[in-house]
């Protein structure tokens, strides 16, 4: 607005000297015709005042001269204020030109507020109260729907009326933006969770595969050299694992595996523990050699694995020719299979085994169960060997 007035003033000043009052008024009117106001200027006038005379510079404006002369204060100096014209409150601006001549502009308070609000982006609502001499002449209720409001005053600015501005963020827009942010955060969280879950699951799954590769000696489970172990490491770990769990000669489970397993059958109600050994095994080793003795042991284990395939059982080697079987199922099936080792042949040599079987339900502890099976084994050996004792 100031730039617009400055343009008009420059045009007038270029022909100021030597003009009579009538010619000056005519020049002002022509200047405002030649320089139409920009769209953002919502004003009425200007009006030129000279003592008790008032002239409108725009032919299409209402003649508010009487109201201005009766209501405007301090016309002799630059100032502003509020006047009521035809029931509408206006902000007026007085700009002295020379002795006894003033330029007066009127701005509708509602238009003024609208003009100021248009300067702010969508979503930022400006709530404004306009005051003069401590009383409000314009107010809106936007301030009731703002969040994070900030208040500013213009009481110290002599080129503006006394105004109170309340700036803030629209509560509706604020809640909408917050909702969008929350939804986006939830979506991003889901994507991140899915990504990291897939990554962690992939690591976990590869760990399981490499564990199976170690326990089952299946290098096909290892992808691209392995995540935790390479092929060479897996082979070494498998050898260590196998040596700890299995007997390297016969393929039966080791004594350590037996100690871990025997504790689990107490209380099952249908499990049996069988201790057995090869009769006169020392004689076989001494007369036919340890390699032949190894063949006898291998035969015994392979026979049991073959005949007991499909049953719930495990064979353990304690050392030398001493073995154990943990079996769950019918006793008659176990006795039938064991009878095949009471008299068998390996390499043309007649061999036999003696057995002692104890039912888990006969004992309350693992130690008692082992002692009972061991006693029945020795009963079989002392009673002529090549037999099964189960009661």
Automatic annotation (TrEMBL):
The keyword Transmembrane applies. It catalyses: 2 GTP = 3',3'-c-di-GMP + 2 diphosphate. The chain crosses the membrane at residues 173-196. GO terms for cellular component: plasma membrane. Keywords: GTP-binding, Membrane, Nucleotide-binding, Plasmid, Transmembrane, Transmembrane helix. NCBIfam families: GGDEF. This is diguanylate cyclase. It comes from Escherichia coli. The lineage of its organism: Bacteria, Pseudomonadati, Pseudomonadota, Gammaproteobacteria, Enterobacterales.
